[in-house]
Design goal:
Layout: E1 4-7, H1 11-22, E2 29-33, E3 69-72, E4 76-80, E5 85-88, E6 93-95, E7 98-101, E8 105-107, E9 116-117, H2 122-132, E10 137-141, H3 145-156, E11 160-165, H4 171-188, E12 192-195, E13 198-204, E14 207-212, E15 217-220, E16 222-225, E17 229-231, E18 242-243, E19 246-249, E20 259-261, E21 266-269, E22 274-275, H5 280-296, E23 308-313, E24 316-321, E25 331-336, E26 341-346, E27 351-355, H6 361-369
Parallel strand pairs: 1-2, 1-7, 2-3, 7-20, 9-16, 10-11, 10-16, 11-12, 19-21
Antiparallel strand pairs: 4-5, 5-6, 8-17, 13-14, 14-15, 18-19, 21-22, 23-24, 24-27, 25-26, 26-27
The structure holds flavin-adenine dinucleotide (FAD).
Flavin-adenine dinucleotide binds near residues 9, 12 and 146.
GO molecular function, one term: oxidoreductase activity, acting on NAD(P)H
Organism: Corynebacterium hylobatis
GO cellular component, one term: cytoplasm
């Protein structure tokens, strides 16, 4: 395989490029990334980037080692798999022998208003922080990790924040116990939580109006929508690769023999229906598998991913390995839930979590898999 094109300069694109080199690819590579920046930590955008202080700090990632030609601030607008050619935003063509699709996703939004903020890119975070420092009243739509992290940052910056979410925030992502703890801490720190779905959002009289499903209207200076993301597949629409609008790859992350996909853009079909896993560590693992599959085909290993997720909000750090625990009480392996500092283990579901406790990730993974608890 001579020339490889990598579409997307996020963590999946970066990891795929570095892995291709590590596995011995000596041909040329071109990385095309719509953002003008070098790859940065996207999870940091809703955490440290919104912390009080002048600077927007997202830390640094290790430099790329792939030595590819990088086209930053450029987008791919089309793909012809039969001719093995991708189209750039100026209409020029980029031929490839192998293609890695890693274009991630975009934030969902309700309106085109510039008072409705989303947070997907470094530029989004800069714009949001630029607004939050003036302490507007804020309605956050969505009580998943992103919404709760943004709410935590906004409260920390002195804003009056209302978060709208059906049910208990974070419960879908962490289960009822940990979701309940984070929500309780958020309430103690001044977050107002409204248990509802949103039916509409509009700009009115220089502010924003959020209409709930029961007709109630919430008025605030700005809205932050953190209600999910949409895979960035618009450039693939005429490629013939999308199935019901979805880019689906096999467990080796292959879409065709010469095209692999990784990260938030990708649905992987392990046999039980295609599923996306839009988290940082999944993007890294998929990119490694995808790079190997592009070079080694059937000889490459399939994806074997142990779910790992973390969040920082309301002064708490939470790390979780394994599936979301529902229903059962955990074993408290260390610390105490009352002190909100504990290592927890759900042997039935193969899950372990560290709440405000330092614990190396490999140890957390090991604990999650154990049937007898010891750390
Ligand atoms: C604010 C925020 C906080 C998060 N926090 C966490 C967390 O705490 N833990 C966790 O596990 N996960 C978290 N995530 C999710 C995690 O960041 C993503 O799963 C991960 O970044 C996905 O990487 P990716 O490379 O697939 O996509 P992305 O990081 O989205 O990178 C894709 C890149 O492709 C570019 N692109 C798109 N279309 C084109 C095109 N047509 N041509 C060229 N380039 C294109 C995009 O501009 C983008 O730079 C968070 C996400 C966000 C937005």
């Amino acid at each position: 395989m001579d020339h490889i094109v990598i579409a997307g300069n996020g963590i999946a694109g970066l990891t795929a490029g570095d892995t291709l080199r590590r596995l011995g690819h000596t041909g040329t590579m071109t990385v095309v990334g719509a953002e003008p920046h070098a790859t940065y930590s996207r999870p940091a955008l809703s955490k440290v980037a919104l912390a009080p202080g002048e600077d927007l700090d997202v830390g640094t990632l290790p430099e790329a080692t792939h030595g590819a030609t990088e086209l930053r601030g450029r987008s791919l607008t089309g793909l012809d798999p039969a001719r093995q050619v991708a189209t750039l935003d100026d209409g020029s063509e980029l031929p490839y022998d192998g293609l890695v699709i890693a274009t991630g996703s975009q934030a969902r939004r309700f309106t085109g208003s510039d008072r409705e903020y989303t947070i997907r890119s470094l530029d989004d975070a800069a714009r949001l922080k630029g607004s939050l420092v003036h302490r507007p009243t804020v309605t956050v739509i969505g009580g998943g990790p992103l919404g709760m992290e943004v709410a935590s940052g906004a409260v920390g910056l002195g804003c009056d924040v209302t978060l709208v979410h059906p049910g208990t925030p974070m419960e879908l992502h962490l289960g009822p116990l940990l979701g309940g703890i984070l929500t309780q801490v958020a309430l103690e720190q001044g977050l107002a939580v409204v248990d509802s779905m949103v039916s509409a959002v509009r700009e009115e009289n220089g502010g924003m109006v959020v209409t709930l499903t029961d007709g109630t209207e919430l008025v605030s200076d700005i809205v932050v929508t953190a209600a999910g993301d949409l895979p960035a597949t618009a450039w693939l629409e005429d490629s013939g690769l999308l199935v019901d609008g979805r880019l689906i790859a096999d467990p080796r992350c292959r879409v065709t023999d010469s095209i692999v996909a990784a990260g938030d853009v990708t649905f992987i079909d392990h046999g039980a229906g295609p599923r996306r896993t839009p988290i940082w560590t999944a993007a890294i693992e998929q990119a490694k598998v995808a790079a190997a599959a592009l070079l080694q085909g059937d000889e490459a290993a399939s994806l074997d991913f142990q779910s790992y997720f973390w969040t920082d909000q309301w002064g708490l750090n939470l790390k979780m390995s394994g599936p979301i625990p529902h229903g059962t009480e955990p074993l408290v392996v260390k610390g105490s839930l009352e002190e909100r500092s504990a290592v927890l283990h759900w042997p039935e579901s193969g899950t372990a979590a560290a709440l405000n406790m330092r614990m190396p990730i490999p140890r957390l993974h090991k604990l999650a898999r154990e049937t007898v608890t010891s750390v």
